[in-house]
Design goal:
This protein is mainly beta. About 10% of the residues lie in helices and about 35% in strands. It contains two helices and 21 strands. Strands 13-5-4-1-14 form a five-stranded antiparallel beta sheet. It has a five-stranded mixed barrel with strand order 17-18-19-21-20. A three-stranded antiparallel beta sheet has the order 6-12-11, with no helix packed on it. The protein is elongated.
Length: about 300
């Protein structure tokens, strides 16, 4: 009897998945996260709301691959686009402006795109037919089901996934190995006269660590120090001296109790972006890493808050 019920359940699940993959489904509640892959670890590209109808391309037990909605935020490396036309073969569509973001499809050479935004070396494009994203099956029903029949309300939305580093594409669709842009905002308060030392940031909501920064690949980390610790540092963004063992061409410089300039850390962010804020005083929030035989840590910025320039 139990075996019979299990077989019946599996057959029903198979029929449901097949039905979902054959056409359209309706979203049952507001604020459902749409992701670039079948799992909560994948980046969110947009949200679907109650009564939205999505086109299902295929389905698994828990997730459905759907055609990207019109408001999905998808990106392509700008140098692979010319006059709104793809000029390289098999260009990756990504879920964010950087190679650390996961793919959401590919574009063939000659495809036409509509550019909606430019951020650094990346352009956001209108979702093309080639793009696919994913949504949880628990928030989908057949369009024929009455509107009052709805799935349970979603739980608290999960955190955005941490970017996973990927190797750039090979010849034809190559992308540069560079860090994604760092959010830079203006600080609301002037620079304190004496910058703080390292302030540890609460990690109670950071259950999983992000991958190692690309700048540290191949380096030997100091096993006696904590790696990936969240910190906040203040100082002035300067170029790094030509010293052996440096981790970056940029560093954050503060002052000790006697007013002498000291290096607080190397900055492991996007070099072009750091160059654009060179000489500015800022507060840096990010992850700190220690490398053996290197005097100062490397910090990968998550946010840079610029203080008003002194006159």
């Amino acid at each position: 009897m139990i075996r019979h019920l299990l077989l019946l359940g599996l057959v029903s699940l198979g029929l449901l998945s097949a039905a979902m993959a054959d056409g359209q489904m309706r979203v049952t509640t507001d604020g459902v996260n749409v992701r670039c892959g079948p799992g909560t670890s994948f980046e969110i590209v947009c949200q679907a709301n109650k009564s939205d109808v999505v086109t299902v391309r295929r389905a698994t037990e828990e997730w459905s691959e759907i055609a990207a909605p019109a408001d999905a935020r998808l990106w392509v490396y700008a140098e692979l686009i010319e006059d709104a036309t793809v000029i390289a073969s098999r260009v990756q569509i990504r879920s964010g402006p950087g190679i650390n973001y996961r793919p959401a499809g590919k574009l063939e050479k000659g495809c036409q795109v509509s550019i909606e935004e430019t951020v650094g070396d990346w352009v956001r494009i209108a979702p093309p037919p080639e793009a696919s994203v994913w949504i949880s099956n628990q928030y989908l029903v057949s369009p024929d089901v009455p509107a009052q029949v709805r799935a349970p309300a979603p739980a608290k939305p999960p955190k955005l996934a941490k970017p996973v580093p990927e190797s750039p594409a090979v010849r034809g669709g190559a992308e540069p190995a560079r860090a994604p842009p760092i959010p830079v905002v203006a600080a609301s308060a002037p620079v304190p006269p004496q910058p703080r030392q390292v302030d540890k940031v609460d990690e109670s909501e950071d259950e999983d660590r992000p991958p190692l920064p690309m700048a540290l690949e191949g380096r030997h980390l100091d096993e006696d120090r904590q790696q990936g610790e969240r910190v906040r540092l203040e100082g002035e963004i300067r170029t790094a001296r030509a010293t052996w063992g440096k981790l970056s061409s940029y560093r954050l410089v503060g002052h000790d109790s006697e007013g002498r300039a000291i290096t607080r850390c190397y900055l492991l962010g996007n070099p072009e972006q750091l160059k654009s804020v060179l000489g500015r005083r800022a507060s840096i929030d990010g992850r700190q890493y220690w490398v053996r035989r290197v005097r100062y840590p490397g910090v990968r910025p998550d946010h840079i808050r610029l203080y008003p320039e002194r006159r």
